[in-house]
# Entry
Amino acid sequence: MIQVTVNGKDRELDGPMSLLEFLEENHISPQLIAIAHNGVVLHKNEYGIISIKEGDSLEIVRMVGGG
# Structure
């Protein structure tokens, strides 16, 4: 088990995993969000490369349409 912070809340994960695996497990569509990993905004092509580890911080923002 590892401890991470997601949108300011502590979360416990089974272990290290790719960011894309985390999104899939949480039913989050990668096309509709932006992510900062440890304070760095990521490009969508990095989601499968980045590994979430103990102590990491994620900020996940959903895109909202409107006018």
